[in-house]
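step=predict obj=NADH-quinone oxidoreductase subunit K n=99
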Amino acid sequence: MSLVHYLVLSGIIFSIGATTVLIRRNAIIALLGVELMLNASNLTLVTFARLHGDLTGQVIAFFVMIVAAAEVVVGLAIIVSIYRTRRSASVDDASLLKS
């Protein structure tokens, strides 16, 4: 596969993730959309790192994976807390964090 194929695949994955975040109201599905966008950025970073022959992009992708794992832990804890109080995982019902 060439560079263009990887970038097109990354763009498609990022578009699916962005569409999921913008359209879906369920917080867990929105969190999955964010993960898709982060994975698309990782694919782009690793593609360019391979193209240039250095490890910088792969190291940055590794840090993005670490941040994504932490984000999932915190995000799921917040979603479970909201679900326990409201019996809904909708992002529209999550207004208790505003003030």
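step=describe
The radius of gyration is 16 Å.
step=end
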